[in-house]
Design brief:
Length: 191
């Protein structure tokens, strides 16, 4: 009788172990499922935040192209920013030499929501570090530039040339100041 109760206990224990192991695998699966749902939810929330606060509108925004001719275009290359009144409105799509007229043709891509007036004049600007930007002046005309039109761009001012001109003017000013100082010294000596 003792051996029969022992074997019965062993069977009950083994059944309990099976039930416990089945129960723990079910709980483990439920836990994994819950973690998976949370990870997917966090991914969806992160994607919404990126689209909400990120600058990803360009992915579905319509653009139009304009051709701009420059005599020189230092620092301009694919993806150079195009601005109007300091606001980013597009980028440079292509740069090529103009074999017929000489100079450089720059193809710019402008976002459709930023129409440009007929008398808007593009001008190249460069920072002291040499970064180029194509800047459009606002213009006053009621007519709007149509996609594909070609316009003439104003040449850029080289920041180093500007500094050289300022230096020359400063030297002239200092020489004039020195001459005036000498004159006042003579006046002071005569008194």
């Amino acid at each position: 009788r003792h051996s029969s109760s022992t074997s019965k206990r062993k069977r009950d224990n083994s059944r309990r172990k099976v039930l416990i192991s089945k129960d723990s695998t079910i709980q483990e699966r439920q836990l994994k499922f819950r973690v998976g749902i949370r990870v997917v939810g966090a991914g969806v929330v992160a994607a919404r935040l990126v689209f909400r606060f990120g600058e990803l509108r360009w992915l579905w925004e319509k653009n139009f192209t304009l051709g701009v001719h420059f005599h020189r275009a230092p620092g301009v290359e694919h993806r150079t920013p195009v601005r109007k009144n300091g606001i980013l409105i597009g980028s440079v799509r292509a740069v090529s030499f103009d074999e017929g007229r000489g100079g450089v043709n720059v193809m710019v891509e402008i976002r459709e929501r930023y129409p440009l007036r007929k008398d808007s004049h593009p001008m190249l600007t460069r920072s002291l570090l040499g970064d180029a930007t194509l800047e459009f002046a606002p213009g006053q005309s009621r007519e709007i530039l149509r996609p594909g039109e070609r316009i003439e761009g104003a040449p850029s001012e080289d920041p180093l040339e500007i500094i050289a001109r300022v230096e020359a003017k400063a030297n002239q000013t200092l020489e004039s100041f020195a001459a005036t100082s000498d004159e006042w010294r003579k006046v002071g000596n005569n008194l």
